[in-house]
Amino acid sequence: MRRSRADHERGGEYPEQMSTASSTESSSTEPGSTEPGAPAAATTAEPSGTGAGRAPGRFGALVDRFAPALGAYAVVKATGLTVFLLLLSHTGDYLKKQPGRGGGANPWDVLGTWDGVWYQRIAENGYDPQLIPLRGFPLATYYENSAAFFPLYPWLMRLVGAVTGLGPYGSGIVVSVLASLVAVAGIFAIAERLGGFRAGVTAAVIWGLFPGSGVEWAVYSDSLFVALSAWACYCVMTRRWLTAGLLALVAGLNRPTAAALIAAVSIAALVALVRRTDGVARPLTAMLITPWGLIGYVAWVGWRMGDWGGYFKLQRGAWNRYFDGGASTLRTFMDVITGHWDFWQSNPVPDLIAIALLIALPGLLVLLWRARPPLVLWVYTALTIATALSSNQIFGNISRYLLPAFPLCIGLAFALRKVRLSSLVGLFAMPAIAAGWYAGYALFELGIP
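The chain above was modelled as a monomer; its predicted structure follows.
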């Protein structure tokens, strides 16, 4: 049954089962409705006069609900992007770099470099998975191949290009920007559920300022992945098991790190199945369908290569990416803090930003714990962090690899939900400007995203 806003504001603490993956209202609740169980503290964050001037109908209700978060996010992203482009124009270094490697004819071309080049090639030409031996390089045994990049994002680029007539670069930017807005809506919905309206808007802004957020509006697949992950977690929280399972399946076609989301949805479904809170069919079906996007693509690459382990051989042999239990992360951490810059892919500024984020990480986890998130968010966050830190990789990219861990933003937003609006604006003003440097310029021009 739909509750009025007054009832929502009088709501007490979450029932005890809200700490589990299956904690929520019945699956019949509509996405645009006011959910029950919001903490009483959220009432201080509700905007005044919410009912006045509301556009009629379901669409108007959705606009009324999500527009503040989307608008605030767009402002901080536009500010950061402007600063990023101004820095590029100021130095002109992009003119001295190779196209595709931080260079281009125009400042905005930088947003389509590095991984963006591969996605554009796939959108134009498709895949040709191969393992071609490479000799004479100590850290590379195979030539780079586009099969290392998952297909969902370039598929959408090709679709947008066919509809709009845009080229691969323009299509990639359109997909990323739209996906980032969907991601922000999902982050807002989850944070609003845990801490109220103010927490939801604040979480959206924090995700737009997060180190590594420079790829959100670039030809990168990160925004699309976070959009799928956030809404999959929200669907688990609201017991929409089939939708959550399908979103996890589709996310498996976008990035290999979807393994964290697949595990989170599956474990949440298993808990619901054991407790019989939602019957058997829906959580069981969600568990069964989640992994097949990821498994299917890796298997297809292996089949095309004639080697079932081909995808992993390509990742290790061409990009030097492989699981090492966190040994390289720890070793590089010690090298950076002691001033040794002779490790593989040393990029001092992004490396120091990664150090700052790692130092802040325990505090962000404590803030998330204080928000009392459901199990699905805990599992997803823990596995995302573990995946980012337990693999051999470019150390300076940790800020980008942790960008999908959006619940960290929710924990911080929960802690700030009672701060006055004027104070929040002042608090985020400088990071909105600085993000153009630490999340944009440092990532694309001083490092390798």
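Residues 57-91 form the longest helix (35 residues).
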